[in-house]
Amino acid sequence: MVRAVVGAAIVDDLDHPTRLLSARRTEPPALAGGWEFAGGKVDPGETPEQALHRELIEELGVTVRLGEVVPGPLADGRWPLGESYAMTVWWAVVDSGVPAPIEDHDAVRWLTAEDLYDVPWLPADLPIVDAIATRLR
C-alpha cells in the first residue's frame, strides 16, 4: 500500500515566485544532509491539507496559505517517493512566522532560480524541483 505524504513548495509569492524555501533533513540517517520540501506523512483521520499545516508548524514554525497543487506524474497527480510513498505538493506562502529548522531539519535556505540546484536535493524531490524551476523568475 502506498502511504500518503504531503509537501509544500514554499515561495515568496504565489503568482510570481522568485524564491523557494528548502530544508535540510537530519532524520532518518539515510536521508540526513539532503534538502527537501517541508512536509510529512498524513496521519489517520487527517486530510492531506490538515497534515501539511500540522507538519509545517511542527517542522518550521510557520503557518501558510496554500495555492495550487504542483501536478505530479502519477494518475492522481502525486509524486512518487520510492515504492512506499506518494507525495502531494502544494504551492504555499508563509502567512505567519519565520521559517526555522525546528524538527527533522538543521537548516533552511531560500533559493532563487540561479542557485536552485546549489544544494543536494533528495533524489525523489529533484523532479519536483525541476517542475517548480519553470515558474521561478
UniProtKB/TrEMBL annotation:
Its cofactor is Mg(2+). It comes from the Bacteria. Keywords: DNA damage, DNA repair, DNA replication, Hydrolase, Magnesium, Metal-binding, Mutator protein. The keyword Membrane does not apply. Its EC number is 3.6.1.55. It catalyses: 8-oxo-dGTP + H2O = 8-oxo-dGMP + diphosphate + H(+). The keyword Magnesium applies. Belongs to the Nudix hydrolase family. This is 8-oxo-dGTP diphosphatase. InterPro entries: MutT-like (IPR047127), Nudix_hydrolase (IPR020476), NUDIX_hydrolase-like_dom_sf (IPR015797), NUDIX_hydrolase_CS (IPR020084), NUDIX_hydrolase_dom (IPR000086). CDD domains: NUDIX_MutT_NudA_like (cd03425). Gene3D superfamilies: Nucleoside Triphosphate Pyrophosphohydrolase. It comes from Pedococcus aerophilus. Residues 1-136 form the Nudix hydrolase domain. SUPFAM superfamilies: Nudix (SSF55811). It is an enzyme of class 3 (hydrolase).
